Amino acid sequence: MEDFAVTQDQMENVARTIYNFMPPTPQYNWPLLSQRVGTEVWVKHENHTPTGAFKIRGGLVYVDYLSGQRNRSFEFIAATRGNHGQSVATAASHKGFSSKIVVPEGNSKEKNRSMVAQGAEVLTYGKDFQEALEYATELSKLDNIHMFPSFHPLLVRGVATYAWEVFKEISDLDAIYVPIGLGSGVCGVIAARDLLGLTTEIIGVVAENAPAYSLSLKSGRLISTNSADTIADGLACRVPNDAALDIIKKGVSRIVEVTESQIRFAIRCFFTDTHNVAEGAGAATLAAVLKEKQKVESKRVAVILTGGNIDNSVYQDVLNEKCEGKSYL
Length: 329
Prior knowledge:
This protein is of the alpha/beta class and 329 residues long. It folds into two domains: 8-53 and 156-320, Rossmann fold, CATH 3.40.50.1100; 56-147, 3-Layer(aba) Sandwich (Rossmann fold), CATH 3.40.50. It contains 14 helices and ten strands. The protein has helices at 8-19, 31-37, 56-69, 83-94, 109-117, 129-142, 153-169, 184-196, 212-219, 242-251, 260-274, 280-291, 293-296, 312-320, and strands spanning 27-29, 40-45, 75-79, 98-103, 120-124, 146-147, 175-179, 201-207, 254-258, 300-305. The strands form two sheets. It has a six-stranded mixed β-sheet with strand order 1-2-10-7-8-9, with helices on both faces. Strands 5-4-3-6 form a four-stranded parallel β-sheet.
């Protein structure tokens, strides 16, 4: 299965699979947030899923597809910084399957505990996601365990449903800002927009400290980085996916890089203006809109709050920080 385009029937089918487990998530126009940006801003609340992040949509679709294809039990293994692993653990447990999740050293303790509670065995290996992924791939071959991919057409179809919900509910949307980790989310947004024949501009967002996709888009070829050290662990990708890059090149207008201080400020803004908890990757889209205030003036824009899974200690530190500078307040 290599086709990343989504048909109407496919969208409706995967939506039914997801809605048998969870309802659609809301999208709200928060007045304080719009006032801060200076234009109409809608927030898609993927932090309101049962796992606190958008990834669960793809996990449910992928596991449902496999369970319907073969009459046997599965054991899954995956690598993650947290949200993908929670998706794998929850979706596998929902169908009665087991899972092992490999996380890098120093990974979020609270995300690790959540994955265990959701039914996974959590293993720690490597200094970052890429090393954890390589180890998980090796274990899948040695132990004959099904390697749960981090990027796949079924995952893209699943997460495309959140964009489908946005586009159906918000008319005449000028632009939508989407964070880019490995790429399933932004590719899903592109697929949903194209399915509906819309002209909404899609802007990708990466952390300045994890710019692999931004560098790759600018050069037109895959460019890896030596590190991806960012508070936005969902954006901590240093080796981009070639299939994702091909879709991104055709479907996004640009990629915005945001700094660590801009991400941290956006986390605080989500709390003060909407009383929602946003993890770094979820706040990155708001950080990009604030950075581009002049570009979005008089437009109707949406940001994807992809998740709210941030460690308590990190969140407290961010909320207690004083604003630095006045460049985009």
